[in-house]
Design a protein that fits this description.
This protein is α/β, with parallel strands linked by helices. The chain is built from 11 helices and 14 strands. The strands form 3 sheets. The chain has an 8-stranded mixed β-sheet with strand order 6-7-8-3-9-10-13-12. Strands 2-1-4-5 form a 4-stranded antiparallel β-sheet. A two-stranded antiparallel sheet has the order 11-14. The radius of gyration is 21 Å and the shape is globular. Bound molecules: iron/sulfur cluster. Iron/sulfur cluster (SF4) binds at residues 251-252, 289, 291-292, 295, 297-298, 302, 307, 323-325. Residues 251-252, 289, 291-292, 295, 297-298, 302, 307, 323-325 line the site of iron/sulfur cluster.
Length: 337
Amino acid sequence: MNDDVILSAEDLVKYYPIKTGVIRRVTGHVRAVDGVSFELRRGETLGVVGESGCGKSTLGRLLMRLEEPTSGRVTFDGIDMYSQKGGAMRRLRRDIQIVFQDPYTSLNPRMTVGDIIGEPFDIHPEVAPKGSRRQKVRDLLDLVGLSPEHINRYPHQFSGGQRQRIGVARGLALNPKVLICDEPVSALDVSVQAQVVNLLARLQKELSLSYIFIAHDLSVVRHISDRVAVMYLGKIAEIGNDAEIYERPTHPYTQALLSAVPLPDPTVQREQIVLSGDVPSPANPPSGCRFHTRCWRAQDICKVEVPLLVERPDGESGHQSACHFAEPRQIVETAQL
Ligand code: SF4
């Protein structure tokens, strides 16, 4: 594995059995993640974007080994994560931490902020021995822009943005190398979202962190991601660096997502690509290209042949798209007079 790569997924699969009837017979599977491969480089942010139900949060949990995969491999710093046991796995967990989506429900309302942020030290006392814990928590509060004096307050005494800062402080308590940010701003007001994204960007530089930043909207990850992976029904539809994804998307699904991003300037209009229908069920994904039931470019081959995630011969290195007819298309913006 390349030294520059800190985390990699190889053909990662997670199927959940569907059980029906009195004897709970397995009658099918929800294919939440279905053959996902990528690499996360040191110090970079990989945005993972897709509609709800595309498997991005399951992917986040698999990368932390909060769930066991059906098959596939995750390698952290050259170590095969799923073969680790006991103390070795516990040490590995320290290095990959998560910030959850909803700061309103992910913080225990009966615990003080000091206890919430310091909780990981119960499992990993080697990071902060008993006598130094309060000071460590105060330092973490200061790091995320909250007053250390608020250590004895409860979550309800903070605003939504402040609560997410508490979630970030807890995520950083064990000095991780990788932070999985699972929709960290989607429950927040738009005005507060940028503050939390800016905080994460600053912390990344200061602490040399690598991020997986999960979101359902391309606009949220735009300013923080070095590369973006777009997921559809458990698979990566397109992956590339941010300029390629935002300026020259080649997959029709990415193009549609981009056209749906709201523009801040009401005098500018963007070309609209409207997708028909809803995302199909991951328990019964369409044959061939999973996007063909909603794709305006679909042809007969798309219904039978699964497109591989590959670079176009004339495309840029590392820009891969899973489409038989991948072609760059800039989403046009026009000023309204
Ligand atoms: Fe659309 Fe076909 Fe490309 Fe799938 S393979 S995205 S259906 S054109």
